[in-house]
Amino acid sequence: MTTAQADPMIGRLVDGRYQVRSRIARGGMATVYLATDLRLERRVAIKIMHGHLADDNTFKTRFVQEARSAARLAHPNVVNVFDQGQDDDMAYLVMEYLPGITLRDLLKDYKRLTAVQTVDILDAVLAGLAAAHRAGIVHRDVKPENVLLADDGRIKLSDFGLARAASQNTATGQALLGTIAYLSPELVTRGVADARSDVYALGIMLYEMLTGEQPFVGEAPMQIAYQHANDQVPAPSSRVPSVPRALDELVEWATRRDPEERPANAGELLERLREIESELRGGASGAQPTLVLGDLSPAAAATAETTVLGPRRVNRTAAVALIADEDDVPEPVARLRNDAQRRRARGWWLFALVLLIAGAAGGTGWYFGAGPGAFSAVENVTGVAPDEAQQTLEAQGFVVDRGEESSIDVPDGAVSSTDPPAGTNLKKGAKVTLLVSTGPQLIAVPDVAGAAVDDAKAQLTSFALGADDERISYEAAAGTVMAVLDGDGNPIEAGTEYPEQGAMTLVVSLGPIPDVAGQSEEQAKQTLADFGFSDVNVNAEGKYDDTGAVPAGAALRAGSDEEIIRKDTPIWITLSLGIQMVEVPNVITGQTVAAARDQLEALGLVVTSNVPDLFVGVIIPTTQSPAAGESVQIGSTVEVNYVP
Predict the structure, then answer these.
(1) Are 215 and 240 in contact (CB under 8 A)?
(2) Which DSSP state fits 78?
(3) Nearest 5°: CA angle at 87, between 82 and 93?
(4) What is the DSSP string of 559-610?
(5) What's the distance, CA 531 to chain centroid?
(6) What pTM does this model have?
(7) Which band of pLDDT confidence, cut at 50, 70 and 90, is reported for residue 231?
(8) Taking the CB of residue 261, how many other CB atoms lie within 10 A of it?
(9) Active-site choice (141, 194, 198, 409)
(10) Rounded distance, CA 366 to CA 360, Å?
């Protein structure tokens, strides 16, 4: 079956404009196709979100976020975004088409790269990433798969699907965003990312380009995450001795576990890379060679002696004598004099031209420095009250408008960002929109009661989940979710509107307390300890086992006095006292049926009688079975009857 037959998107006209030609790649959230923009008659790459994610607001928001993040960047090392829209239930993103391969494809073919090749690619990627950091954007998914190597030699950074506006601590929104092999320690341990997290991922990618392998490997993702959180990335030269020391230091600096010890952003790392590039490319020096010229006098020419060029000594007396009598001036001297006069006249014109240029430059400098054509960088007013932020921007000469946006980082009512973003150079009089935070976006909590805990967490990635609250349950199967609690420990009903990244806890069933009936005291304690209980005791009061199934001294059951039982809740073991026997008393000695019943039930016996309830308080029984003096097991039945 061909690709066109297998994929219904091939040949489809998206939004009446983009004709899909072929499939380029498929990812976890979307598929990328080659298409033709019929309006502009050019080839483009169109990224279409998977159909099963179309109803998920979290994925839709992330998809649109990619378009906004990439569209804010205009840099030769970042893939351009042209358009974004919705065709029926299908969300799409239109980008420039770059025929070529990814850095991952290159590494698969060549295993590892030379130092010069690595520097060429790293320089381009850092330049694009630095532009993103300057715009206040954290990529959060830097890896070889997102570095495109075009056939015409261009190198571009793509896939801003996980990008967010940067703040001092940008929360990820889920436990592990991005590829596990490139996650920074702070992402693994605290779920927090900033520009330094991108620098860490870039350091891992640099290590991989130089050695052909990733620094941390393991059979399970959590093993790799543990190494990121606890181990320092080794020097590439420990694997490949030919790696230059300067690149070892670059990797070590970029991958420090403590974010404070890394470069603050990609721009800082790029500056260091460019300082060492000449050394890595073969040591071309910027020093000029020493010039040695020969003496031009006839005598020196005859002897062919070479001398270093120095200051020329002029005999002023001889020069005056040569021009004392203009009539006697030799023709060569006159020619030189005329040339000198022409040069002096030309010098005045040059001087006037310099003054004119200086005046023009001064006027231009005023126009662009303080006049109407002046540019100014938009101030960072994030977190500031709207009125104060507006005054700040108006003082810069901008026209200020206002809008709103949801934000998980900035409190409700404060400025969350500006459009264009902070740091953008604009002419005075340009329009800047203040975007005021409306607080976190409210999202409906899905119904996860009864779901397996992993499935529930996959549905709750828009919220900040704390450690599971594990409890004993005789109704819910072990490992299933019983309830969802808010930050104060109150239950959250399914469908409730809850803030994005709001704190919540899953109540997870541990199943019932293990059955220890029939086990010895030590065996029962071990069984409960193996289950995870940390506080196990023996009940001081044993219980009789009326069934006879558990012998005396063995465990009868395990339980707790607490209503909610967790692994740290005290658990007690009740030991069996075995079967208890009792002697049947004589109850037909003149007392009523009611009194006989009270006496027998007090001994743990069950009483039946042929006397109606209406007369038990007045009729005296005449027979009993078993007879008085017989020993019976507690719980046995005694018949008390009246026989006329």
Answers:
(1) no
(2) B
(3) 25
(4) E-S-SS--TTS-EEEEEB----EEEPPP--SS--HHHHHHHHHHTT-EEE-S
(5) 34
(6) 0.44
(7) very high
(8) 11
(9) 141
(10) 10
Question: Region 357-381: what's the mean pLDDT?
Answer: 66
The neighbouring-strand residues paired with 101 are: 149
CATH code for residues 108-154+163-280: 1.10.510.10
**Residue 274 and residue 123 in contact, taking contact as beta carbons nearer than 8 Å:** yes
Same fold for the pair 108-154+163-280 and 377-437 = no
438: nearest Cα among 396, 390, 486, 404? 404
Distance (Å) of CA 486 to CA 31, 308, 445, 471, 498: 36, 86, 11, 17, 9
pLDDT digit string (tens) for 529-543?
A: 999 999 999 987 777
Q: In the chain, what is the greatest distance between 2 CA atoms, to the nearest angstrom?
A: 181
- Written as one string, the DSSP assignment of 384-428 is S-HHHHHHHHHHTT-EEEEEEE--SSS-TTSEEEEESPTT-EEET
Architecture of the domain spanning 3-96: 2-Layer Sandwich (3.30)
Phi and psi at 308, nearest 5°, equal -75, 140
CATH 3.30.10.20 is right for the domain spanning 377-437 = yes
Q: Position 100: which residue type? A: G
Q: Domain 442-509: give its CATH architecture.
A: 2-Layer Sandwich (3.30)
As a whole number of angstroms, the distance between CA 77 and CA 218 comes to 33
Q: DSSP labels for 479-528?
A: TBEEEEEETTS-B--TT-EEETT-EEEEEEE--SPPP-TT--HHHHHHHH
Residue 194 to residues 47, 113, 118, 207, 381, Cα–Cα distance (Å)? 26, 28, 25, 21, 18
Structure tokens at 210: 């130089």
Q: What is the pLDDT of residues 384-439, one digit of tens each?
A: 899 998 998 888 889 999 998 888 888 888 898 999 898 888 888 889 999 998 88
Does the structure show a pLDDT above 60 at 551? yes
For the question of residue 141 being annotated catalytic, the response is yes
**Class of CATH domain 581-641:** alpha beta
Question: For the chain, which residues make up each domain, given as ranges?
Answer: 3-96, 108-154+163-280, 323-373, 377-437, 442-509, 521-575, 581-641
